[in-house]
Amino acid sequence: MQKAAERAGKKLEEMNVDSLFSKQEREKWRDEAFNEIKQEIERSDKHYHVVSTTCIFYYADWSKEEGLNQQLFHIIEPNIVIAFIDDLIEMKKRLLNSERWNRIFTESGGPPLNFLAKWREDSVNFLHDLSIECQYRKDPIKRKEEGFVTDFYIFARQHSKETLTSLIYEMNEKLKLYLSYPISEGREELSKVEEFRDKLSENYIVFDPFTIKDWNIVNSYDSLKENQNSMKIGDVELPRKEVEDALSSIRTQVVGRDFAIIDSVDAVVVYHHTKEPSAGVMAEIIYARHNRKPVFGYYPFPRPSPFLEYFMRMGQIRTMYRNEEELIREINHWKEYLRTKTI
Predict the structure, then answer these.
(1) In CATH, what class is 50-337?
(2) Which pLDDT value is given to residue 97?
(3) CA 149 – CA 151 distance, rounded (Å)
(4) Are 270 and 285 in contact (CB under 8 A)?
(5) 216-239 tens-digit pLDDT
(6) Domain boundaries in the chain?
(7) Phi, psi of 45 (to 5 degrees)
(8) Beta strands of 54-149 (E only): which ranges?
(9) Count helices and strands in the chain by DSSP H and E runs
(10) What is the pLDDT of residues 124-174, one digit of tens each?
(11) What is the full DSSP assignment across 127-161?
(12) How many CA atoms lie within 13 A of 21 on its CB side?
């Protein structure tokens, strides 16, 4: 966009993008930029091309502007669409370090959490809907192929760069797994999960839901005393009212996001490192089975819940194990039968 603006004799910068130029000018430069990207792709002899863009831009008054639309989507025709997301706290920290956003929210301590939550949710839903509209399919009646998007993923920034690399370059060779586990335990228990996740990641693409740590906001709020008017997460100070305004959205997004990620994987792997049942894990197991996703589980305790046993099966074959290595061997045994499309 900056190059397109320069050709028009204008200097486009973060600080003046919405104050000096009209929406029509911004859209014109955006469209020119997408057409230039398309031309570069057509001239290239590379197999992979990565196009990064903001799909929706929010303004301080909660109005929004599309950075992407169906017409532009059809210009670049992506095969894989990845919605990159981050924790609300990390989003807030980045914008607090932005001169532009600091100028806009000078008096209020940066963009509020409910503003950021809405921005993130709308962006993911917008991208998902575009992907569905442009989904690749074969029409047996018309005997032709339609659409171009084969896969849609929600991907948290805190995943490792190796996971992202595998998703882009090895998605057709490696199984994609969603790791489900209780997240309300202590640091020691979560470190066991991380070790198991890293072990799985040696051969599979693993989506870890706790790479988005918004639930820490909920836990911190629940531990507030009645006379406390603020709370601190890391080095970010949050007014009590700001957190209260965002709680409902945070809680709802946790469920919807995790279910959407389950939709995009080949199988769910449950690491039930606690004896007591987890409502969140059980909900993810039931959702996965309802949507015909195989569920494999690790439960190292005797006499598991009959509900866990019931849902951790493939036909008559039990898929719950008390040994990590046995679980991984079984996943590897079934991997050729588990590949699915993500949209």
Answers:
(1) alpha beta
(2) 86
(3) 6
(4) yes
(5) 999 999 999 888 999 998 888 999
(6) 50-337
(7) -105, 10
(8) 56-58, 64-66, 80-85, 137-139, 144-146
(9) 13, 15
(10) 999 999 999 999 987 777 767 889 999 999 999 999 999 999 999 998 899
(11) HHHHHHHTB-EEETTTTEEE--B-EEEEEETTS-H
(12) 23
